[in-house]
Amino acid sequence: MATAGGSPELISGPDLGGGLLHQLTFEERPDGPSFTFHAQDGGADAGGPPIGSPLPFGFHHPAAYCGLGGPRCFERRFLVPRTSLLSVRAAYNRIRFVMSSMLEQEYRAAPVPLLGAVRELAHRVGPELARRRIPWFIGGSTAIRLLGGDVSPRDVDVAVASEGTTLVGELLTDYLIEPVARTIWGADHEVVGGRAYIGTLSSGTRVEWAAAPDIMSSTRARDEWSLPASNVPVVEVAVEGGTLPVARPEFALVKAARGGHEDRIKAAAGVVSKLGVDRALLDELIAASSEPPRVRAAIAIHLSAAAG
Questions:
Q1: What are the C-alpha distances in Å from 274 to residues 137, 148, 239, 264?
Q2: Predicted local distance difference test score (pLDDT) of residue 187
Q3: CA dihedral 256, 261, 267, 273 (to 10 degrees)
């Protein structure tokens, strides 16, 4: 078994999936025991090259040359004990099996069966979280879609109170593509969270959920992900199988205006206008943006057009 400061122990691999060669390792490190998913361009040997990188799925390029995979490699590291081996291995196998489908959706606009995934969340996850009174919600572009906005999300982003992160993973255990664990999302954003691919191996929807271990940095832009799940205003949306809490559309509206995404501003403004503006929330989010006058002007134009 690997020890702190020693070499990683190879658990599985090399395995194939999506034009990539995959490997799973375990290592005892100073910050805790961890499993790592490795992926590299497999070329013709893996039915590749892959049509794109797995970066959108949480992988990253290591800061140094990869011990496994050479210079064209990607990693995902999860701080969980070795006793989690069976669940980690199951998630590792599923992600390589669905990698081709996820890459097709990300880079070739293959259909994303979003409604099937949200029905599964309403049926599997919602009732149990409600029974235990654990706050959660769906945010991002999927919130706008569920509220009637004309957007095409490629995944479902979920926030849940910290006491619910493991439970969501248990409820979606058949679909996990990574273990629920302390890990890094983005460049340096530490979370406790997980990912699943709800559907079949050839067609599904990526679902991501997390709760920050602590209050996020005050330098982060104010959005639905920068607040505890219990503090985010939501709208209950009825879907087949139950109801889903989705973040108020003002969050998506301000984010779209910050980024200058006209189509997204229009879609979010239409939903906000239809529901009625939460003026206090909107003003708070605008004030917390880096360019309040520009953001306010863009929003005012699109809300006026939506009110028509």
A1: 20, 9, 19, 15
A2: 63
A3: 50
Point out which residues pair with 39 in neighbouring strands. 22, 74
Q: What is the pLDDT of residue 219?
A: 45
Mapped onto helix, strand or coil, the DSSP state of residue 276 is coil
CA 300 to CA 254: how far, in whole Å? Answer: 11
Residue with tokens 């004309």: 150
Angle formed by the axes of helices 279-287 and 292-307, nearest 10°: 150
Contact criterion met (CB below 8 Å) for 38 and 12: no
Q: Distance (Å, rounded) from C-alpha 143 to C-alpha 151?
A: 10
Q: Domains of the chain (ranges plus CATH)?
A: 9-107 (no CATH), 111-247 (3.30.460), 248-308 (no CATH)
Overall size of the chain counted in residues: 308
Q: How far apart are CA 166 and CA 115, in angstroms?
A: 24
Which residues of the chain are under the pLDDT cut of 70?
A: 1-6, 63-71, 186-188, 212-221
Tokens 């005012």, located at residue: 300
Please spell the DSSP secondary structure of 237-272, one letter per residue. EEETTEEEEEE-HHHHHHHHHHHT-HHHHHHHHHHH
Q: Is the distance from CB of 265 to CB of 302 less than 8 angstroms?
A: yes
Q: Which residues contact 270 (CB under 8 A, 6 or more apart)?
A: 148, 149, 150, 306
Edge to edge, what strands does the sheet with 176-185 contain? 176-185, 189-199, 204-211, 155-160, 136-139, 242-247, 234-239
Rg (CA), the chain: 20
